[in-house]
Amino acid sequence: MRISLLIGLMATVLFACNSKSTISKELRASIQSNESFAFVKKKALEVVKTGFNAGDGYGEVWIRDYNTFIELSAEVYPKEELKENLRVFFRLQGNDGNIIDGFIPKEKAEDVEGGYTYIYNDLEPVYCGHKNTVETDHESSLVQAVYKYVRKTGDKAFLGEKIGDKTVAERLQWSMEFLMNHRWSKAYGLVYGATTADWGDVQHCHPWGVYVTDETKYCIDIYDNAMMVIALNNIMELLPETQQKWLPIRNNMVDHIMKTLWDNDKQKFIPHVYLKESPYPVDFNENEIFYHGGTAVAIEAGLLSKAQIKVSLDKMIANVKASGAGSIGLTMYPPYPSWAFENKGMVPYGYQNGGDWTWFGARMIQQLVRYGFYQEAYDQLVPMTDRVLKNKGFYEWYTVDNKPTGSGTFRGSAGVLYKAIEMLEGAVEK
């Protein structure tokens, strides 16, 4: 037996023997008395009342963001307003089933010079859309957003509502069929996208990097595939009659993800498995990089055991210590070298290349609570809530030395933090 495998098995046995999903009196008191939790929840509700765009640095409503704060929006908006945003994404759905990235009022798009090529559809009179084609999470994000909307409001009738010639239920499945028809690797049995940093939407080539080009290098990654697994789980729960179609696909994806992307020796996900050649030189070991965000979403998709989750968390904590970052929202460690991305914002520890994003870090907290790691969840949540209290708001991301940057009212961060706190407080109540 290989030594690494033996050590892994021993760690699993020891962890299973010592793991307790309980909340001590001390932890209970800490959760109930933490002043930053109350501030964050109050502030999150204030922020989400002001609109649906991603934050003050963005004019668009983005589906990957809306998916992460639609539940919080349901606390302060009537369901009709939440539903109308979802309708816009469906009205602007492509004739091949693809889902746009975000939408903006037509008059505002006309004022923008350069940048996006906007998408129009006769079904939508007010808004136009755009799509960062390097990413493969838009379809999955919309499915998840609809699922959260229905779960939160109980509005199952929305699934039967007709938009154009298709119902919402049919359009949800159509979006998954787009991935199967146009973003599917038959060789790996998984979806593919461009070479980006973990969950990011900036590819390695081009000064901007959001559109597929002739230089794009396609690859398989954990984030996009875990997002699709979650979306298929959501569809089958919303539409049980579709299980015969989607369950075999979902099960095969889970199997192929672990066979293709999970490095059992290193106990981590491989950043990219390329359909053809890598864009990077042969002496660059990309597999040294640990993806925090994609790993958190993989846990949400149910891909890792409880022992593997603990190992992943330990690696995240070690990465935070080694980098000097403020929280496990650190996107990855180590970051890509400065030459790895043409976009000048993607320097080491810049933006999506090693920036610290609560937007994903708090999703890991949610999963820690879900799997009974209550003390660990509290310990890793506090640095995120403390800096919201200190900076009086939800910033898009933080530098490696914990300085806030980017959009100052980032609703995605508000949504995931609010939910993480509620989950932890709910565990105390139970």
Automatic annotation (TrEMBL):
Q: What is this protein called?
A: Cellobiose phosphorylase
Q: Signal sequence span per UniProt?
A: 1-16
Q: Which InterPro entries match?
A: 6-hairpin_glycosidase_sf (IPR008928), 6hp_glycosidase-like_sf (IPR012341)
State the organism named in the record.
Answer: Saccharicrinis fermentans DSM 9555 = JCM 21142
The UniProt keywords, alphabetically, are: Signal
Any single GO BP term: carbohydrate metabolic process
